[in-house]
Amino acid sequence: MSSAPIGVFDSGIGGLSVLRHLHRLLPCEDLIYVADSAHAPYGDRSPHEIQARAEEITRFLTGQGCKLVVMACNTATAAAAGTVRAASPVPVIGVEPGVKPAAMATRNGVVGILATRGTLQSAKYGHLVNRFGREITLISQICDGLADQVEAGQTTSPATRSLLRRYLAPIMERGADTLALGCTHYPFLIPLIREILGPGVTIIDTGGAVARQALRQLREENLHPDTQRHGGLSVFTSGDRERVARQMEAFWEGAADLHPLPSIAPPAIPFQAEKISPPA
Ligand code: DGL
């Protein structure tokens, strides 16, 4: 089992920002990545739709023999971590906006969070803010369309720059000294964000923390292989493979083989015959 792959998924290629930390920290592990590009962005979808996608993808990954599943998507974690964990035979790690590390990092107590509509409107985010955001001024900014810009490879275009300027304006106006990226697509925008914010603002990307958590979990369960070999990467997508191949070229250093994502039906609910008592 320790030589089994780790499964990672996102609505599209955003989760590669988490995958690169996993690959750096756990170079011997085989990785399977699912880009659910046919259903991206998740940010505008209902929690119900996201749960169905997340459960189906987790079924696929565990069917491939994965020993651990990483939901490399804040929106999917917010909507579906509970149901996915309940149904998965292997441990599931999710990602959530870095409210806690941001609250610890801020010096002036003003923090900005960028995330999707789905994430920021979720009950899970409300709990996170109640737990870790009470002592700080938190500006939670919904970033409609921003993940799409990254999906389209537009990480430096004028359109992305003006969208980011608009979303960062309220955060800058309040004088935030810390910004947490609550969507796994956004780390690919760090150079542009840094250019707009200037050098004084701490930017928090939780990808590294997620990789460290994966390592801890594997060690705890004795599932981390003790080997010098180099792990491989297989990518599956529900979307257009040529597009994903181009995205991989832009966002991933290294080789990967690319496959279509098969659809996996939910397990049948066992039929329970109703007991009919004989007439007295
Ligand atoms: N990368 C995802 C996240 O972390 C989802 C973006 C989207 O599909 O809207 O939230």
From TrEMBL:
It comes from the Bacteria. Pathway: Cell wall biogenesis; peptidoglycan biosynthesis. GO terms for molecular function: glutamate racemase activity. It is an enzyme of class 5 (isomerase). The active site is at 73 (proton donor/acceptor), 183 (proton donor/acceptor). InterPro entries: Asp/Glu/hydantoin_racemase, Asp/Glu_race, Asp/Glu_racemase_AS_1, Glu_race. Its EC number is 5.1.1.3. Keywords: Cell shape, Cell wall biogenesis/degradation, Isomerase, Peptidoglycan synthesis. GO terms for biological process: cell wall organization; peptidoglycan biosynthetic process; regulation of cell shape. Substrate binds at residues 10-11, 42-43, 74-75, 184-185. It catalyses: L-glutamate = D-glutamate. Provides the (R)-glutamate required for cell wall biosynthesis. NCBIfam families: glut_race. This is Glutamate racemase. It comes from Candidatus Sedimenticola endophacoides.
